[in-house]
Write a structure and sequence with these properties.
Shape: globular
Number of helices: 20
Number of strands: 14
Strand content: 5-15%
Helix content: 40-55%
CATH architecture of the largest domain: 3-Layer(aba) Sandwich
Radius of gyration: 29 Å
Number of domains: 3
CATH superfamily of the largest domain: HUPs
Structural class: alpha/beta
Largest sheet: 5 strands, parallel
Strand order of the largest sheet: 7-6-5-11-12
Length: 591
RNA sequence: GGGCGUGUGGCCUAGUGGAUUAGGGCAGGAGGUUCCUAACCUCCUGACCGCGGGUUCGAAUCCCGUCACGCCCGCCA
């Protein structure tokens, strides 16, 4: 109802301004601060003061006087308060919000019919996923979920770099060295941990071995790259064996988050189907194309990019960026919009690609990038090749261990005599542990750098996943106690009269619940899932106040009030649970 | 050197032009459970929003300068 209420408010403001013969392009509709008794407000009077020739409060008064609140079902009153026009919603607003939020899919926006592809993670299949890159799957998965909630048809893609020099090096190393040549055991019994040792060994060899031997190796690596470029089937199969094996291991780790993909799109696909060649041909024909130092380049000066963009090497092979152009044109052919989640180090390439796609005649408005900063260790960067860094698996294991300890500690001094089975404890430990990791990362603005510290990442206190999850569990606890099974499918509450929810705590909770669809809308529009995390904190806080002040199932609570409060609990459960779902954080029924 | 990004109490963080004399959390201090889960709640202590100018009726938010940190400036990915 919040979105409808906002429509009403905008409509009322527009009519009023028109009646006063004032411009309607800037309505200034905003959320009033805490403590103001209104759900929406307009600050338009500030800007109109000059035109009217009167101080803002007076202009606000005129606007408020001009508004006929009675004409709108959801608007109770519009009144000037200083320079603001405040809008108080009607009882119908609260009642319809409570009704709307009974649906298990509360927060989903109307289907848009728009097909969107979200590409994220796309880490080179060189070894285990480490925490430095973990922001990508976590943010990317949340972005995809947000867009899906906002009504788009979303596909998630992992772009697999299986055609570059790194994979040629890896394939050569894997075929060249034996287990006996390696100086360590795999850190885990998993394909990516096993094979990364060859990759590290290969790189170490190329850096430190005898120059003649290195040259020989380089020839073999070069042969692999040429083979891929020419679409040689045997070379392709050799590389695929390494790629698929390592990727398989990485997927297992990513699945734990969970970050799952609809499709793994391989780079070699665009070499094999000729589209990369096609891109090269078309680029060469551009006025901006230059042939310098035996290589084909693009002069992107007109896009404010000084550096020339090399799209064809002197040996005639394409580069990653060239293939990525073909990849993106393929996305444009198959989707209405494309979103890519990228580390900040890819920012320049993203600009180059946008410019190049534009020159090739594409509508680059279809493409948006979400940029995030890397997670570093206090002592510096994480690197797969160097073997420095925290593996995602280790972080998740540690998180679950700490969460399990926490559950067991609380088991001893808990008041309620529910009996958690060992399975419950394990389930809670996983939900809380992994949830805490995801939440910690997704709740921060992606542009901010994160320095990884165990204790900070795994803090289960307030403003963390468990704090929010606990509210969800509390909701479920109350509903179950009342004989309602919160399984998400059936209608949770029966008949109820929302007008009985009169206390401040109840009203505020209902107001926060009401905003959830608008939060989804905003997060999807700006591709900022962290605003959903901010929202979960708000609703959790508001719910806890309600929980303290408004008993639901106590004996002295009137039956009708009890039903109304149960409906409010169900509404809160849907808002919190669905918000957590958008963030990819589990919503436990008990904890 | 150039470009981009970030800078909010001891630590982490929201807010990126309007009701803010900056909102939370952690840490520190004081309380709260005969009552639907205390992974909770209440109260206290603590910030000239990196620094200096400017624009504006109004600036953490915009502009200029400056400092610090991060990232980028490969015929790597």
């Amino acid at each position: 109802m919040y979105l409808q209420f906002r429509d009403d408010v905008e409509d009322a403001l527009t009519s009023a301004l028109e009646a006063l013969d004032l411009p309607t392009d800037d309505l200034g509709v905003e959320d009033p601060p805490e403590g103001v008794d209104a759900v929406l407000a307009s600050s338009a009077a500030f800007r109109l003061a000059g035109e009217v020739g009167a101080p803002p409060p007076q202009v606000a008064g005129q606007i408020a006087d001009e508004i006929d609140a009675g004409a709108y079902e959801l608007v109770e009153a519009a009144s000037a308060q200083g320079p603001y026009v405040n809008f108080v919603p009607s009882d119908a607003y609260y009642e319809e919000t409570a009704e709307e939020a009974q649906r298990a899919d509360f927060g989903h926006l109307e289907p848009t019919g728009e097909e969107v592809v979200v590409e994220h993670t796309s880490a080179n299949p060189t070894g285990p996923v480490h925490v430095g890159r973990a922001r990508n799957p976590i943010v990317g998965d949340a972005v995809a979920r947000v867009l899906s909630f906002a009504g788009h048809d979303v596909d998630t893609h992992y772009y697999v770099n299986d055609a570059g020099r790194q994979m040629a090096v890896f394939t050569w190393a894997y075929e060249t060295f034996d287990e006996a040549d390696l100086d360590s055991e795999p850190e885990r019994d998993k394909a990516d941990y096993d094979l990364v040792r060859y990759y590290r060994k290969g790189n170490d060899f190329l850096e430190n071995a005898d120059p003649d031997e290195v040259e020989e190796a380089e020839d073999e690596i070069q042969a692999i790259m040429q083979g891929l470029e020419e679409g040689d089937e045997e070379t392709y199969q050799r590389v695929q064996e390494v790629v698929d094996t390592v990727l398989g291991g990485m997927r297992e780790s990513l699945d734990r988050l969970p970050a799952e993909f609809d499709e793994f799109v391989k780079e070699t696909r665009f070499l094999r189907d000729g589209s990369a060649d096609d891109v090269v041909t078309r680029l060469k024909e551009l006025d901006e194309a230059v042939y310098e130092e035996d290589a084909w380049q693009l002069d992107l000066d007109e896009y404010g990019i000084e550096k020339n963009f090399v799209f064809l090497r002197s040996d005639g092979t394409t580069l990653y960026a060239t293939r990525d152009l073909a990849h993106h044109e393929w996305k444009f052919d198959n989707y209405d919009r494309a979103v890519t989640v990228l580390g900040e180090d890819h920012k320049l390439q993203a600009r180059q690609m946008n410019a190049s796609l534009d020159l090739l005649g594409n509508d680059t408005d279809q493409l948006r990038q979400v940029i995030y900063s890397y997670v570093n260790l206090p002592e510096g960067k994480m690197s797969t090749r160097a073997g420095t860094g925290i593996d995602l698996d280790d972080l998740l294991d540690e998180a679950i261990d700490r969460a399990r300890e926490e559950v067991e500690t609380r088991l001893d001094d808990r008041i309620r005599d529910d009996d958690l089975t060992d399975e419950d404890v394990e389930r809670i430990a996983e939900q809380v542990g992994i949830g805490a990791v995801r939440y910690d990362i997704v709740s921060k603005q992606p542009t901010k750098a994160i320095t990884f510290e165990w204790d900070r990442a795994l803090d289960f206190e307030a403003q963390s996943a468990p704090y929010v999850q606990y509210v969800h569990a509390r909701c479920c606890g109350i509903l179950e106690e009342a004989g309602i099974t919160p399984d998400g499918s059936s209608d949770l509450a029966g008949d109820f009269d929302a007008s009985l929810l009169e206390t401040e705590a109840e009203r505020e909770l209902l107001e926060v619940v009401a905003r959830f669809p608008a939060v989804i809308e905003e997060a999807a529009e700006d591709l900022e899932p962290h605003v959903v995390a901010t929202y979960t904190r708000e609703i959790a806080e508001t719910f806890n106040t309600f929980y303290r002040e408004c008993p639901v199932l106590a004996d002295d609570v009137d039956e009708d009030l009890r039903d109304a409060r149960l409906a409010l609990v169900a509404a809160s459960k849907h808002a919190v649970g669905n918000a957590l779902q958008v963030l990819g954080v589990a919503a436990p029924r008990s904890m």
